[in-house]
C-alpha cells in the first residue's frame, strides 16, 4: 500500500528557500490548461526525474479534476500548483514528509517526493486524485478536522472499488494517531477509513458523504457522532452496525 502523508503545514516556505543548488533560471515552471477551465502550474525543482514526473502528472489531471468536481462540485480552486522536488530534503522542507511519503498537500500547493517518479501509472493516478481532493477541499477543512475522515474520503475518491482490503479487516473507526504509526497499523487505518467512506457513499449516496465531510470536517465542526446523526439521520452506532454487515469487495 502506498503510504501518503496528508499533513498540511502552513505556510510552506518559498520555493527558493529549499533549492539544493540555485540556478540562474530558477525552478522550471510550465502552465497546463485543463478542460474545465482550470490551470495547473507545474514546477520542477531539478533532478533527472522531476520533469518527466510532472509530464505524467499532467496527463492525469483532467481525469482527476473531473472526478473531484463530480463528487465535490465545481466550486473549488481555479489554479492548481504542483511541485516535483529533486531530493528528500526539498520534500521535507516544503511538505514535511518523510522518505516513505509520495506526496503531500499544503495550504499553497501539492508537493511530490522524488520517489513518486518510480510509481506505476495506476499508483500515481491514485495519488494525484487523492491529493487533488485535499487541494479542492482545503478551504472547507478545519485544521482540527478528524484526519482519518479526511483521508478516508480522499481515498474513496481516488481508489477504484475493486481495490478492497482483506476480508478480515475490522469494521472499526481508526484514530488519527493510527495514521502516524508505521507499519500495518497505519496501512490498516487508511484501509478502514477508506472502507467507512465507501460504505457511506454506497449506503447513503455520494452527496450524503460530501455533506458528512463538510459537517464533520469544516470550521466549527461538531464531533463525528453528531455530524453523522445530522447528515445521515442515524446514530453512529447504527451506521457502524450497518458497515459491519456490508459485503466485502
Structural features:
alpha/beta; Neutral Protease, domain 2; globular; 5-stranded mixed beta sheet; 249 residues; 45% helix
Helix content: 40-55%
Any idea of the CATH topology of the largest domain?
Neutral Protease, domain 2
Count every helix, treating DSSP H or I runs of 4 or more residues as helices.
8
**Strand order in space, largest sheet:** 1-2-3-5-4
Write down the oligomeric state.
Answer: single chain
Could you please describe the fold and organization of this structure?
With 249 residues, the protein is α/β, with parallel strands linked by helices. It has two domains: 15-140, Neutral Protease, domain 2, CATH 1.10.390; 147-244, no CATH class. Helix content is 45%, strand content 10%. The protein is built from eight helices and five strands; from the N terminus they run ββαβαββαααααα. The protein has helices spanning 50-72, 88-95, 121-137, 147-158, 184-204, 206-217, 224-232, 236-244, and strands at residues 28-33, 39-44, 79-84, 103-105, 110-112. Strands 1-2-3-5-4 form a five-stranded mixed β-sheet, with helices on both faces. Helix 1 (50-72) links the parallel strand 2 (39-44) and strand 3. Helix 1 crosses helix 3 (121-137) and helix 3 (121-137) crosses helix 4 (147-158). The longest helix has 23 residues, at 50-72. It is globular, with a radius of gyration of 18 Å.
